[in-house]
Design a protein that fits this description.
Helix content is 56%, strand content 12%. The protein is of the alpha+beta class. The chain folds into three domains: 11-50; 60-136, Translation Initiation Factor IF3; 142-318, Phosphate transport system protein phou homolog 2, domain 2 (Methane Monooxygenase Hydroxylase, Chain G, domain 1).
Amino acid sequence: MSSQIKKRKVIQIANSTQMISLPRPWALSHNIKKGDELFIETSPDKLVVYADSINREKKEISIDVSDLDRTSLILAVRSMYRRGFDKIIVNYSNQTTPHYRTGQNPNRLSIIVAEVNMLIGCEIVESNEKQCIVKNMSQEDPAELEPTIKRIFMMLSDAAHDFVTGIKKNDTPLLESIEEKHDTITKFISYALRILNLRGLPTNFSTSVTYHLISTQDIVIDSLKYTTKKILLKHPSPFSKYFIKVIELIEKNIEIFKKLFFKFSMATVAELNKNRDEFLKMLDDLKFKDESELTLLNRLESIPLAHFNIVESVISLAHKS
Protein backbone atom coordinates (compact mmCIF):
# COMPACT_ATOMS: atom_id res chain seq x y z
CA MET A 1 0.00 0.00 0.00
CA SER A 2 1.46 3.37 -1.00
CA SER A 3 1.86 6.16 1.55
CA GLN A 4 -0.96 8.70 1.65
CA ILE A 5 -1.46 11.89 3.59
CA LYS A 6 -5.02 12.89 4.45
CA LYS A 7 -6.50 15.31 6.92
CA ARG A 8 -8.27 13.88 9.96
CA LYS A 9 -10.34 16.04 12.31
CA VAL A 10 -9.33 16.11 15.99
CA ILE A 11 -12.11 15.13 18.38
CA GLN A 12 -12.10 16.65 21.86
CA ILE A 13 -13.29 14.42 24.72
CA ALA A 14 -13.74 16.07 28.12
CA ASN A 15 -10.94 18.51 28.97
CA SER A 16 -7.79 16.43 28.54
CA THR A 17 -8.29 13.84 25.79
CA GLN A 18 -7.98 14.41 22.05
CA MET A 19 -8.61 11.72 19.46
CA ILE A 20 -8.43 11.16 15.71
CA SER A 21 -10.09 8.27 13.91
CA LEU A 22 -8.17 5.60 11.99
CA PRO A 23 -8.72 5.42 8.21
CA ARG A 24 -11.25 2.64 7.72
CA PRO A 25 -9.49 0.90 4.77
CA TRP A 26 -6.21 0.78 6.74
CA ALA A 27 -7.93 -0.60 9.85
CA LEU A 28 -9.69 -3.28 7.80
CA SER A 29 -6.51 -4.28 5.96
CA HIS A 30 -4.77 -4.88 9.29
CA ASN A 31 -7.80 -6.48 10.95
CA ILE A 32 -7.90 -3.84 13.68
CA LYS A 33 -10.65 -4.54 16.21
CA LYS A 34 -11.95 -2.82 19.32
CA GLY A 35 -9.54 -3.34 22.20
CA ASP A 36 -6.50 -4.07 20.00
CA GLU A 37 -3.20 -2.41 20.88
CA LEU A 38 -1.35 -0.24 18.36
CA PHE A 39 2.23 1.01 18.48
CA ILE A 40 2.83 4.75 18.23
CA GLU A 41 6.24 6.18 17.35
CA THR A 42 6.64 9.82 18.36
CA SER A 43 8.93 12.58 17.11
CA PRO A 44 8.79 16.37 17.48
CA ASP A 45 6.57 16.92 14.42
CA LYS A 46 4.78 13.63 13.75
CA LEU A 47 3.20 10.45 15.10
CA VAL A 48 3.57 7.13 13.29
CA VAL A 49 1.00 4.43 14.06
CA TYR A 50 1.95 0.78 13.53
CA ALA A 51 -0.39 -2.19 13.49
CA ASP A 52 2.45 -4.18 15.07
CA SER A 53 5.93 -3.51 16.42
CA ILE A 54 7.87 -4.75 13.39
CA ASN A 55 6.78 -2.23 10.78
CA ARG A 56 9.70 0.16 10.91
CA GLU A 57 12.35 0.88 8.36
CA LYS A 58 15.44 -1.30 8.71
CA LYS A 59 18.67 0.66 8.96
CA GLU A 60 22.22 -0.38 8.13
CA ILE A 61 25.65 1.21 8.38
CA SER A 62 29.19 0.42 7.30
CA ILE A 63 32.09 1.38 9.57
CA ASP A 64 35.87 1.04 9.21
CA VAL A 65 37.56 0.07 12.47
CA SER A 66 41.06 -0.57 11.09
CA ASP A 67 42.63 2.19 13.20
CA LEU A 68 40.75 1.46 16.41
CA ASP A 69 42.22 -0.11 19.53
CA ARG A 70 40.43 -2.89 21.38
CA THR A 71 38.34 -0.61 23.65
CA SER A 72 37.42 1.80 20.86
CA LEU A 73 36.39 -1.16 18.69
CA ILE A 74 33.99 -2.38 21.39
CA LEU A 75 32.50 1.08 21.78
CA ALA A 76 32.09 1.49 18.02
CA VAL A 77 30.07 -1.71 17.60
CA ARG A 78 28.09 -1.13 20.79
CA SER A 79 27.19 2.44 19.86
CA MET A 80 25.92 1.42 16.41
CA TYR A 81 23.65 -1.15 18.07
CA ARG A 82 22.42 1.35 20.65
CA ARG A 83 21.81 3.89 17.90
CA GLY A 84 19.37 1.46 16.31
CA PHE A 85 21.09 0.01 13.26
CA ASP A 86 19.85 -3.44 12.22
CA LYS A 87 22.83 -4.31 10.05
CA ILE A 88 26.36 -3.25 10.97
CA ILE A 89 29.06 -3.93 8.38
CA VAL A 90 32.40 -3.81 10.20
CA ASN A 91 35.42 -3.39 7.92
CA TYR A 92 39.07 -3.78 8.94
CA SER A 93 42.43 -4.15 7.22
CA ASN A 94 44.32 -6.01 9.96
CA GLN A 95 43.58 -9.04 12.10
CA THR A 96 44.72 -7.74 15.47
CA THR A 97 44.06 -4.63 17.53
CA PRO A 98 46.14 -3.11 20.34
CA HIS A 99 44.88 -3.28 23.91
CA TYR A 100 46.73 -0.40 25.50
CA ARG A 101 45.99 -1.33 29.11
CA THR A 102 47.46 -4.84 28.85
CA GLY A 103 50.01 -4.27 26.10
CA GLN A 104 48.57 -7.23 24.17
CA ASN A 105 47.23 -7.45 20.61
CA PRO A 106 44.05 -9.57 20.65
CA ASN A 107 42.30 -10.84 17.54
CA ARG A 108 39.95 -8.21 16.16
CA LEU A 109 37.19 -10.63 15.16
CA SER A 110 37.27 -12.27 18.60
CA ILE A 111 36.68 -8.87 20.20
CA ILE A 112 33.71 -8.25 17.90
CA VAL A 113 32.25 -11.69 18.61
CA ALA A 114 32.48 -11.11 22.38
CA GLU A 115 30.74 -7.75 22.05
CA VAL A 116 27.98 -9.08 19.77
CA ASN A 117 27.24 -11.74 22.40
CA MET A 118 26.31 -8.83 24.68
CA LEU A 119 23.87 -7.28 22.20
CA ILE A 120 20.36 -8.67 22.60
CA GLY A 121 18.99 -10.01 19.33
CA CYS A 122 22.24 -9.70 17.34
CA GLU A 123 24.25 -12.35 15.51
CA ILE A 124 27.28 -12.36 13.25
CA VAL A 125 25.91 -13.59 9.91
CA GLU A 126 29.11 -13.33 7.87
CA SER A 127 32.81 -12.81 8.52
CA ASN A 128 36.17 -13.06 6.81
CA GLU A 129 39.67 -11.60 7.17
CA LYS A 130 38.51 -8.14 6.06
CA GLN A 131 34.88 -7.82 7.13
CA CYS A 132 32.31 -8.84 9.69
CA ILE A 133 28.55 -8.38 9.29
CA VAL A 134 26.43 -8.03 12.43
CA LYS A 135 22.69 -8.33 12.03
CA ASN A 136 19.81 -7.76 14.42
CA MET A 137 17.71 -10.93 14.19
CA SER A 138 14.86 -9.91 16.48
CA GLN A 139 12.63 -6.90 17.01
CA GLU A 140 12.74 -4.66 20.03
CA ASP A 141 9.40 -4.19 21.77
CA PRO A 142 8.68 -0.67 23.12
CA ALA A 143 6.62 -2.25 25.88
CA GLU A 144 9.83 -3.83 27.22
CA LEU A 145 11.51 -0.48 27.96
CA GLU A 146 10.13 0.10 31.46
CA PRO A 147 10.65 -3.47 32.75
CA THR A 148 14.16 -3.46 31.25
CA ILE A 149 15.07 -0.26 33.10
CA LYS A 150 13.65 -1.69 36.33
CA ARG A 151 15.70 -4.84 35.78
CA ILE A 152 18.86 -2.74 35.38
CA PHE A 153 18.35 -1.03 38.73
CA MET A 154 17.49 -4.29 40.50
CA MET A 155 20.62 -5.99 39.13
CA LEU A 156 22.80 -3.01 40.06
CA SER A 157 21.47 -3.24 43.60
CA ASP A 158 22.30 -6.97 43.72
CA ALA A 159 25.79 -6.36 42.32
CA ALA A 160 26.51 -3.67 44.91
CA HIS A 161 25.34 -5.95 47.72
CA ASP A 162 27.52 -8.82 46.47
CA PHE A 163 30.46 -6.43 46.13
CA VAL A 164 30.24 -5.32 49.77
CA THR A 165 29.49 -8.82 51.07
CA GLY A 166 32.38 -10.28 49.09
CA ILE A 167 34.80 -7.77 50.62
CA LYS A 168 33.48 -8.26 54.16
CA LYS A 169 33.71 -12.04 53.98
CA ASN A 170 36.77 -12.19 51.71
CA ASP A 171 34.58 -14.26 49.37
CA THR A 172 36.59 -14.56 46.14
CA PRO A 173 33.93 -16.46 44.12
CA LEU A 174 31.33 -13.82 45.00
CA LEU A 175 33.68 -11.04 43.93
CA GLU A 176 34.52 -12.89 40.73
CA SER A 177 30.82 -12.97 39.88
CA ILE A 178 30.76 -9.16 39.62
CA GLU A 179 32.23 -9.27 36.10
CA GLU A 180 29.45 -11.57 34.91
CA LYS A 181 26.88 -9.26 36.50
CA HIS A 182 28.60 -6.34 34.75
CA ASP A 183 28.19 -8.01 31.36
CA THR A 184 24.51 -8.78 31.96
CA ILE A 185 23.73 -5.25 33.16
CA THR A 186 25.61 -3.72 30.21
CA LYS A 187 23.58 -5.93 27.87
CA PHE A 188 20.29 -4.60 29.27
CA ILE A 189 21.57 -1.01 29.26
CA SER A 190 22.38 -1.34 25.55
CA TYR A 191 18.95 -2.82 24.83
CA ALA A 192 17.12 -0.06 26.73
CA LEU A 193 19.10 2.66 24.94
CA ARG A 194 18.37 1.01 21.59
CA ILE A 195 14.63 1.07 22.28
CA LEU A 196 14.86 4.71 23.31
CA ASN A 197 16.71 5.66 20.14
CA LEU A 198 14.29 3.78 17.90
CA ARG A 199 10.99 4.46 19.64
CA GLY A 200 11.54 7.32 22.04
CA LEU A 201 9.15 8.59 24.68
CA PRO A 202 6.23 11.02 24.22
CA THR A 203 8.54 14.07 24.35
CA ASN A 204 12.14 14.77 23.36
CA PHE A 205 12.77 15.96 26.91
CA SER A 206 11.62 12.69 28.47
CA THR A 207 13.62 10.69 25.94
CA SER A 208 16.88 12.61 26.45
CA VAL A 209 16.67 12.62 30.26
CA THR A 210 15.82 8.91 30.41
CA TYR A 211 18.68 8.17 28.01
CA HIS A 212 21.08 10.09 30.24
CA LEU A 213 19.76 8.33 33.33
CA ILE A 214 20.23 4.85 31.84
CA SER A 215 23.63 5.52 30.27
CA THR A 216 24.90 6.83 33.63
CA GLN A 217 24.44 3.33 35.04
CA ASP A 218 27.28 2.23 32.76
CA ILE A 219 29.58 4.28 34.99
CA VAL A 220 28.18 2.64 38.12
CA ILE A 221 28.66 -0.97 37.06
CA ASP A 222 32.03 -0.24 35.42
CA SER A 223 33.28 1.23 38.70
CA LEU A 224 32.21 -1.88 40.62
CA LYS A 225 33.78 -4.17 38.01
CA TYR A 226 37.19 -2.51 37.79
CA THR A 227 37.46 -1.94 41.53
CA THR A 228 36.72 -5.65 42.02
CA LYS A 229 39.43 -6.56 39.52
CA LYS A 230 41.95 -4.52 41.51
CA ILE A 231 40.88 -6.22 44.72
CA LEU A 232 41.19 -9.69 43.22
CA LEU A 233 44.63 -8.97 41.76
CA LYS A 234 46.10 -7.45 44.91
CA HIS A 235 44.25 -6.31 47.98
CA PRO A 236 45.16 -5.52 51.59
CA SER A 237 43.02 -8.29 53.12
CA PRO A 238 41.58 -8.02 55.65
CA PHE A 239 40.25 -4.54 55.00
CA SER A 240 39.98 -2.00 57.79
CA LYS A 241 36.65 -1.42 59.51
CA TYR A 242 36.76 2.18 58.32
CA PHE A 243 37.11 1.05 54.69
CA ILE A 244 34.14 -1.32 55.11
CA LYS A 245 32.05 1.51 56.52
CA VAL A 246 32.86 3.73 53.53
CA ILE A 247 32.02 1.11 50.88
CA GLU A 248 28.73 0.47 52.66
CA LEU A 249 27.89 4.06 51.76
CA ILE A 250 28.43 3.16 48.08
CA GLU A 251 25.93 0.32 48.35
CA LYS A 252 23.53 2.65 50.15
CA ASN A 253 23.98 5.28 47.42
CA ILE A 254 22.93 2.77 44.75
CA GLU A 255 19.94 1.72 46.85
CA ILE A 256 18.81 5.31 47.36
CA PHE A 257 19.06 6.07 43.65
CA LYS A 258 17.05 2.94 42.88
CA LYS A 259 14.39 4.15 45.32
CA LEU A 260 14.43 7.54 43.62
CA PHE A 261 13.79 5.89 40.26
CA PHE A 262 10.95 3.68 41.44
CA LYS A 263 9.20 6.35 43.50
CA PHE A 264 10.43 9.92 43.15
CA SER A 265 10.39 12.26 46.12
CA MET A 266 12.41 15.33 47.05
CA ALA A 267 13.08 13.68 50.43
CA THR A 268 14.92 10.89 48.59
CA VAL A 269 16.91 13.49 46.64
CA ALA A 270 18.01 15.00 49.96
CA GLU A 271 18.86 11.53 51.29
CA LEU A 272 21.01 10.86 48.22
CA ASN A 273 22.94 14.12 48.64
CA LYS A 274 23.43 13.49 52.36
CA ASN A 275 24.87 10.07 51.58
CA ARG A 276 27.23 11.54 48.97
CA ASP A 277 28.47 14.22 51.35
CA GLU A 278 29.07 11.64 54.08
CA PHE A 279 31.06 9.51 51.64
CA LEU A 280 33.23 12.46 50.54
CA LYS A 281 33.80 13.54 54.14
CA MET A 282 34.99 10.07 55.14
CA LEU A 283 37.20 10.02 52.06
CA ASP A 284 38.83 13.26 53.20
CA ASP A 285 39.45 11.98 56.74
CA LEU A 286 42.12 9.57 55.45
CA LYS A 287 41.61 7.06 58.26
CA PHE A 288 42.71 4.08 56.19
CA LYS A 289 44.87 1.07 56.86
CA ASP A 290 47.08 1.87 53.89
CA GLU A 291 47.10 3.79 50.63
CA SER A 292 45.70 0.87 48.62
CA GLU A 293 42.33 1.29 50.36
CA LEU A 294 42.25 4.96 49.41
CA THR A 295 43.11 4.07 45.80
CA LEU A 296 40.16 1.68 45.65
CA LEU A 297 37.80 4.28 47.09
CA ASN A 298 38.97 6.86 44.57
CA ARG A 299 37.77 4.48 41.87
CA LEU A 300 34.39 4.10 43.59
CA GLU A 301 34.00 7.86 43.99
CA SER A 302 32.65 8.01 40.41
CA ILE A 303 29.41 6.33 41.57
CA PRO A 304 28.03 9.01 43.94
CA LEU A 305 29.38 11.71 41.61
CA ALA A 306 27.59 10.17 38.63
CA HIS A 307 24.32 10.03 40.55
CA PHE A 308 24.80 13.61 41.75
CA ASN A 309 25.30 14.78 38.16
CA ILE A 310 22.08 13.13 36.94
CA VAL A 311 19.79 13.94 39.87
CA GLU A 312 18.94 17.43 38.58
CA SER A 313 17.63 15.88 35.36
CA VAL A 314 15.66 13.32 37.36
CA ILE A 315 14.00 16.14 39.31
CA SER A 316 13.12 17.90 36.06
CA LEU A 317 11.68 14.71 34.61
CA ALA A 318 9.50 14.16 37.67
CA HIS A 319 8.15 17.71 37.40
CA LYS A 320 7.55 17.88 33.67
CA SER A 321 4.42 19.79 32.68
